[in-house]
Amino acid sequence: MRIAVIGANSSCGKKIVLKAESQGIKVTSIVNSFSDVVGNGKLIVKDYDEVVFDDVKDCHYVVDALSFLEITRFSSDELPVWHFLEILKNSTVKLLELGSAAFLFTDKTRQKLVVESDSVILDDRQNKVDRLCVNAFKRLSSCSNVDWSVLCPPLLLDEFSYGSGEYEFSDNILPVGINGDSFIALNDYISACVELLKLKPKTHSCVSVRGIRLN
């Protein structure tokens, strides 16, 4: 398998590159500067809106580690995902977005999104981020000529804990454990991302994942 990683020098992107390469996946790193680049594969240094289809035509997946995870870095109309939807349309190259819990449903009735739930307390900054993510996902959902899918973390994406190495996938409903916990360590989220690529997620769908604490 060959993948390309958008934002391969971001905190999440670097981990994806290293994890994928450790499992024998060939990685093309797409960055807009040489800073903090990792991995041994092909390197493309361009502004994201200057990437062309020939740069990624040999890949099975393009993994976007920027558009949702670092959404405030860009204006709403300049997220990298919009450019990649354009260059990937009607091709066999698939797009995997690393998403947000904000646009998962709160329960099986699928009547309310997490961002709309009164039980989730958000500060003003997080509320802004979540609203931006929801709006971007709505726009993404209208795209039918690219084979895209989204992997959403639970409420807490923990960048500091090492992780248990155990996690479980679910559908587009917020994943919550029997004790009411909804978290995953970043290391486990990265592992889940690479595993999902191998499992080949369903087209035009959201997949959620949560970490499992070991006793």
Description:
The chain is an alpha/beta fold. The chain has a single domain (2-211), classed as NAD(P)-binding Rossmann-like Domain (Rossmann fold, 3-Layer(aba) Sandwich). The chain has helices spanning 11-22, 53-56, 80-88, 124-141, 186-199, and strands at residues 2-6, 26-31, 42-45, 61-64, 94-98, 148-152, 156-158, 167-170, 183-185, 205-211. The chain has an eight-stranded mixed beta sheet, sandwiched between helices. A two-stranded parallel sheet has the order 7-9. The protein is globular and about 45 Å long. The mean pLDDT is 94.
Q: So, CATH architecture? A: 3-Layer(aba) Sandwich
Radius of gyration: 16 Å
Count of domains: 1
CATH superfamily, please?
NAD(P)-binding Rossmann-like Domain
Globally, the shape reads globular
Distance between the termini: 35 Å
Q: SSE order in H/E notation? A: EHEEHEHEHEEEEHE
Q: Averaged pLDDT, please? A: 94
Structural class: alpha/beta
Strand order of the largest sheet: 3-2-1-4-5-6-10-8
The count of β-strands is 10
The top level CATH class name: Alpha Beta
Uncertain stretches: none
**Helix segment tally:** 5
Helix content: 25-40%
CATH topology: Rossmann fold
Beta fraction: 15-25%
State the major sheet. 8 strands, mixed
